[in-house]
């Protein structure tokens, strides 16, 4: 049993060439938002989503979720080129950039894009880069092949792609004087990379970080992190041991906070698989949202 639910709806999303559907599992009626395609001057595909009918959590103005645009981006050139997707709050945009690092299923996965979309609905600009260069882990692959696959994801290449994504966001938001600091969020594989990024960054670009059940984390580098970090995980997740989280919490110091959800395993916050996990996912989202707001909006205003 997890922490108490906030009671807000958990929206389901599916993406196709023409529609973005947001569904509440607690209602038999779906709420659909139609996306109209157009080409920007840079030939990036833009998707606009009208969300005036959606409910948002208590205390959040409905207008904050009225419009979100989605843009397919190509960052860098030649061998350094990577694909990414940017969600931008069109109305009530607070100007803050968020880098979202996916799990092993990649940046096109519907659960990851749904989560990014929800963050954008709260006023942010969320960039989701392709960490696997078009070769994410597939659910149809034999589990026995996972270690071979992950071994092909060169850590230096992944780090370089994250750095390129960070530089793009700095140029787009920080250098323009819109956002003073960026935020970074990661799930699973991406959650582990959050720790590496923040340790290297030293507070230069990023103001806060959120790691959801990070995997393959190196606690020895946590002491190099100088910004607040929120760790969210289940206490029954073998891929993200509680003792590792506690060690990093101590190493980082007063800016770190570990939140554990009882009897929850891996992936519950962005892939809830039951009504009980829906409730915990909602509370996790609210914690993250408040953490981002306090660290990036209030403290930088």
TrEMBL record:
InterPro entries: CMBL, Dienelactn_hydro. Keywords: Cytoplasm, Hydrolase. Residues 82-292 form the Dienelactone hydrolase domain. It is found in: Cytoplasm. GO terms for molecular function: hydrolase activity. One of its GO terms (cellular component) is chloroplast. Transmembrane segments: none annotated. Pfam families: DLH (PF01738). Its main location: cytoplasm. This is Dienelactone hydrolase domain-containing protein.
């Amino acid at each position: 049993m997890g922490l108490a639910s906030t009671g807000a709806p958990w929206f389901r999303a599916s993406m196709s060439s023409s529609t973005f559907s947001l569904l509440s599992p607690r209602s038999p009626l779906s709420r659909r938002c139609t996306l109209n395609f157009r080409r920007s001057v840079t030939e990036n595909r833009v998707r606009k989503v009208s969300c005036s009918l959606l409910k948002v959590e208590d205390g959040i103005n409905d207008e904050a979720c009225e419009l979100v645009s989605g843009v397919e981006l190509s960052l860098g050139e030649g061998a350094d080129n990577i694909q990414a997707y940017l969600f931008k709050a069109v109305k009530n945009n607070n100007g803050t950039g968020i880098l979202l690092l996916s799990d092993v299923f990649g940046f096109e996965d519907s659960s990851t894009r749904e989560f990014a979309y929800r963050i954008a609905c709260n006023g942010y600009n969320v960039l989701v880069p392709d960490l696997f260069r078009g070769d994410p882990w597939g659910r149809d692959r034999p589990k026995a092949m996972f270690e071979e696959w992950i071994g092909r994801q060169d850590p230096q290449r992944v780090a370089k792609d994250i750095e390129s994504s960070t530089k793009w966001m700095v140029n787009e938001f920080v250098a323009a004087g819109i956002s003073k600091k960026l935020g970074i969020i990661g799930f699973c594989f991406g959650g582990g990379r959050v720790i590496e990024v923040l340790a290297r960054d030293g507070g230069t670009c990023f103001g806060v970080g959120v790691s959801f059940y990070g995997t393959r984390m190196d606690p020895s580098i946590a002491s190099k992190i100088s910004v607040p970090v929120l760790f969210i995980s289940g206490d029954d997740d073998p891929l993200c041991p509680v003792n590792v989280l506690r060690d990093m919490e101590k190493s980082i110091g007063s800016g770190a906070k570990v939140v554990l959800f009882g009897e929850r395993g891996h992936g519950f916050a962005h892939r809830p698989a039951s009504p009980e996990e829906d409730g915990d996912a909602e509370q996790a989202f609210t914690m993250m949202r408040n953490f981002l707001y306090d660290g990036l909006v209030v403290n930088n205003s």
